[in-house]
Design brief:
Layout (H helix, E strand, L loop, with lengths): L1 H23 L5 H25 L3 E3 L4 H19 L7 H23 L3 H14 L5 E4 L3 E4 L13 E6 L2 E7 L5
Antiparallel strand pairs: 1-5, 2-3, 3-4, 4-5
Helix pairs in contact: 1-3, 1-4, 2-3, 3-4, 4-5
Length: 179
């Protein structure tokens, strides 16, 4: 439940900052908006690639790497939606970044609106995005032993063995020995 409290605080802060930008008509300069848009596109591309390679049990190196990239993606989308120059952030971009801007608040509201699936989906989404350092049992330059978050429906179970190689790490499955 601690993760959910943090989710409420983070989504509330993003939403309030964004509303401030929408109501006060504070805008980023055109060059700053262009740079933020380019960073947003690069981060989106990296996250798409990370999602594709994750289907093959291969991940970007480091427990917090993908989580940090996701948060940067959400924050930059929120900045573009609320503060971006309207000539650069066109209608399609505003719709796309608006969906990302409202996602944290909508996922928290989902917790309260839908009786059973709302809490399950919300805790599953936020559990994956926020992470928990208590899930890591051992970490060095070559391997990491980590309990993998399985969602709100079940316990995480025994730790998985991750082998690190370059900028990637490979999930070798559940640790076979009693750790």
């Amino acid at each position: 439940m601690e993760i959910f409290k943090l989710a409420i605080v983070i989504s509330g802060l993003l939403f309030l900052i964004g509303l401030f930008g929408l109501f006060k008509k504070v805008r980023l300069s055109s060059p700053t908006t262009v740079i933020a848009k380019k960073i947003f596109i690069v981060l989106g591309s990296i996250l798409i690639i990370a999602g594709i390679i994750a289907q093959f049990d291969t991940y970007l190196r480091g427990y917090w790497t993908t989580k940090s990239l996701i948060w940067l993606f959400i924050i930059i989308a929120s900045l573009l939606f609320a503060f971006g120059d309207r000539q650069i952030v066109t209608r399609r971009w505003r719709i796309f970044t608006g969906l990302i801007f409202y996602f944290p608040s909508a996922s928290v509201l989902l917790f309260f609106i839908v009786p059973f699936m709302g809490p399950v989906l919300t805790i599953s989404i936020w559990g994956r995005i926020l992470g928990d350092k208590g899930d890591i049992f051992y970490n060095d330059n070559d391997i990491r032993l980590q309990r993998v978050f399985k969602g709100a429906l079940g316990p995480a179970g025994p730790p998985n063995y991750f082998k690190k190689n370059g900028i990637l790490e490979f999930d070798k499955g559940i640790l076979a020995v009693n750790f």
